[in-house]
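Action item from last week, closing it out:
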Amino acid sequence: MIYIDKEKLKILFKWYMQEVGDSLVSVLVVDREGLIVDILTRDSEKTDEKKFIGAFSSLVELVLKKLTKDFDLGIFGAGTFDTDKYRFIFCESGSDHVLVSILNHTALVDDVFPYTYLTADKVARIIDGELPVSPVIPKVKRDTELEKIKRKMEYYQSKPHSPEYVYKLSLIGDGGVGKTSMAHRYVHGVFKADYKATIGTYISKKECKFKELGTSVRFMIWDLAGQTQFERLWPDYLTDSRAGILVFDITNRETFENVKKWYDIITKVALPNIVLILVGNKVDLISSRVVSTEEGMELARQLGLYYMETSAKTSENVEDVFEWVAIQIINTNIEEINENLFDKQIEEGSKFIISSPQLKILNQYFAKQLDYCIGKKDTKEIVKYLDILKAIEKKKI
């Protein structure tokens, strides 16, 4: 008989209900026998509803087996079932339990699934009980194009680097490459050879301190499940990432070949100037290696990334990877502060008279220079000058 922290489950359920909204009528966890482990209903006075839920829970295993067989969902089964009054979402929560979400029949399940997988993963870890689990469910929202633009504007207008700010860091790559092992090694200093596959995403926090700089970077680490059944959730979970670690397994060439796919996915939804690093994991398995260091470095060069190799098992370079990311964030923030100061100096400094023809010639000159730019740094410099010229033209100086 395993001990289950039901108090923490209740808090988790409340967070789940809060984020999904009124469409979520009830949430419960059942075991493989169909017995209810814990339940939370939005209106506890509706006793008839509880009886209905209890009766329906006995069908959980049968429904899940059918869904897994019909849709080939793999290790973790998930699916929906509709009645005239309710919509049910079933999501395996570890090997022995199922999270059942009961919604109004009009609810849009695609909006609920990102939160369901997050909750199912946390339920599995609460039941497992080996590591601390936060019951907090963060907001997950796919922005419209207008909201994306607004977020970018807010980002560029944000405050300089502050140790109080939390940066979202996403660990991405195919399933089984060792992302969860890396996260646990870095956050908790432990390694397990039999980690359960992540359900949707696993979230943890860690502060990276730099005593010599008198500052730190606080990470919220999103360990993304790489299995294809979670593919529709990836954009939601990766939105607004400030940093990303692209991980492949040096003993599995397919995971290496899929790196470009992961790079494309995260760069579409992440924040501007995202800090990315490519990591080849499992270097402790020397005899099984199929991807060379040189290949990893060449791919990183093609993508414009830095490359490191790690072993979550021995902890080799794991902390260094996260520290490298933190340093890049600090450097980027300092550069943006300097640029803002430079722009301010231009606005407050001496002003010169320039005619429209002269302005046109300068615009043409700098625009032409873009054709000769080789790296990102050169391009960034030219674009900065073009922005200055646009500001001059707009203010009619």
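Closing note: The chain has three domains: 6-128, 145-330, 350-395.
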